[in-house]
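Entry: Transcriptional regulator, LysR family
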Amino acid sequence: MNWDDMKVFLAVARTESLTAAGKSLRVDPATVGRRVARLEEELGAVLFAKSPQGYAPTDAGQRLLSHAERAEQAMQGGADAVSGTPGELSGQIRVGAPDGCANYVLPQVCARIMDANPELEIQIVSLPRDFNLTKREADMAITVSAPTAGRLTVQRITDYHLTLGASEQYLAHAPAIERLSDLSAHRIVGYISDMIFDKELDYLAEFGIGRVHLASNSVSVQLNWIRGGAGIGVVHAFALPAAPGVVTVLPKHRLSRSFYLVRHADDRRLDRLNRFSAILTEGLRQEVALLEAAT
């Protein structure tokens, strides 16, 4: 079997689309289709069932998928063993993360990792949703809850805290806030309720807040509204150093959440990813502690 054909097979199996597979491989969809047809002819088996929803692996395709993924890991492991400076990490690693972590914690941590490993290429994918590691949307993902399904390894990284926050500008002209019930007289910034992708992010009710006046699925948008004096919202304590002029409101009322590192179970065989994940988790612990101490 031609390894290039196997890479095409993996891309289609993960994206379930010739167009998306072609985009990831930087070839046109017609070429992807021809390569799949060639592989099917060589193996004497239909690997994908085409439907309006896309290309879903058949039973034969599913059986081939596990072998193809092991071959991919072996190829990557071989490349890692001979590339770069001994002792240093190299190659590309993609990390998925919720946008709070991706905007206010990961950049500093990854920059320090790059300082020690200049041949490494780190990509941060910041999206307000869960990542599908089975489809290789990322090499690893940081999440706010521990997944319970799939062939995944889950490691708790660290706790972090959330508090109510508002700008000094807003508070100077707003009704006084002495207890949670006083929040009903204020404009609230928060998530769009039907776009909350993880139950751990549905925290306004814990502050007794029902109605959200200014809503976004982005933590950064919410924080910018709060910085601009638009209202009161829940902010990450680790984001406060990046938001001068924003102060905590009712500081005794705060929530605790956790970050988890999630990886595909088969990736435990890859020394490069094991080493990177160890450095990343320790860096995240230190950075969250440093940023929260600053507030």
